[in-house]
Amino acid sequence: MSQIKVMIVEDELITAEAIAILLKKLNYNPIAIVSSGEKAISKIKNLNLDLILMDIILAGSMDGIETAKIINAKYNIPIIFITAYGDKKTLNRAKLSEPYGYIVKPITSEDELLPTIELAMYNHQVKNKLKKNNETFKQIKHLIQSDKNVLPSQINNSLEKGNYLEQGNDDIEPILEIAVINEKINLIEWLKSFSNPERFLMLEVIKSQPLKLEEIEMLIGKSQSTSSHHIKKLEETGFIKGWKNGKYIYYSLNKPKIMEFVHLWENWIKNLSS
Questions:
Q1: How far apart are CA 25 and CA 33, in angstroms?
Q2: Contact at 8 Å (CB) between 55 and 63?
Q3: Does the model's pTM come out above 0.85?
Q4: Which listed CATH number (3.90.1150.10, 3.40.50.300, 1.10.10.10, 3.30.420.40) goes with 147-273?
Q5: What is the distance between the alpha carbons of residues 169 and 257, in angstroms, rounded to a whole number?
Q6: How do residues 128-187 score in pLDDT, each as one tens digit?
Q7: CA–CA separation, 246 and 211 (whole Å)
């Protein structure tokens, strides 16, 4: 596996070199050290970067937050802020550039870098999958909408208004119900629960291990109320389950139900195309 290539954007050379040493101990590759946002932007196009560690306070006319916004608009590279400033105003500004994490200076050991970097790289991988799934979702929606003779007029009208996935239509008969682990599932209702691509991201982040609501919020970058709403919709499908352990509720995939549904769905699609 190739080393993760990192750019360090830090105007204190001693600090930057110390961070580079820690990165090498973690088997990461610090391929560039720059002292300003302007230099970071000019160099980035010639480097195949995997990660940027960005100080918020920099030499030059742009600070790290402004630099991150410009980089985010042009490149798909996760950015972690390094800062000695933990005040609320600075952090609120930093959030607008959608960073993948924060590391507070001084950084004295690799243990202070590792968890944030690993979480950032995992989160970036998941978000890329979400983007790909969202593009596929849009393509499928376009295909459905393009042939208006295939669908009943009620469905076409709802699709044109953009509300079919979120709102039911009492005039449309349920298309199909199937039994999944002795429970009846209406396909239309099931598909509606996946109308928001962020729910696919939730499934990705709990795929490997059970997570608390707070951990899910952090990984998908959404508020508690939004995350709770998505979890409720996914629980209604039965594809995720929650249980209480101490004072926390953990969520995980209900894999047996997912696998049985996948097999049934696959057979139904094959029957349609036969």
A1: 17
A2: no
A3: no
A4: 1.10.10.10
A5: 27
A6: 776 766 665 555 455 444 444 444 444 445 444 444 444 444 444 444 555 555 666 666
A7: 14
Q: What percent of the chain has pLDDT over 70?
A: 73
Burial 43-78 (b: 16+ CB within 10 A, else e): ebeeeebbbbbbbbebbeebbbbbbbebbeeeeebb
Neighbouring C-alpha atoms within 13 Å toward the C-beta of 84 = 8
pLDDT digits 0-9 by tens, 206-228? 887 888 888 888 777 788 888 88
Rounded distance, CA 270 to CA 252, Å? 30
Say which range, 185-194, 201-210, 239-248, has the weakest mean pLDDT. Answer: 185-194
Look at strands 79-83 and 102-104 and give their pairing.
parallel
Domain regions of the chain by residue span: 5-116, 147-273
Fold annotation for 5-116: Rossmann fold (3.40.50)
Residues 182-202, mean pLDDT to the nearest whole number:
71
Do residues 140 and 165 make contact, with C-beta atoms less than 8 angstroms apart? no
Q: Residues with Cβ < 8 Å from 198, sequence gap 6 or more?
A: 130, 220, 222, 226, 230
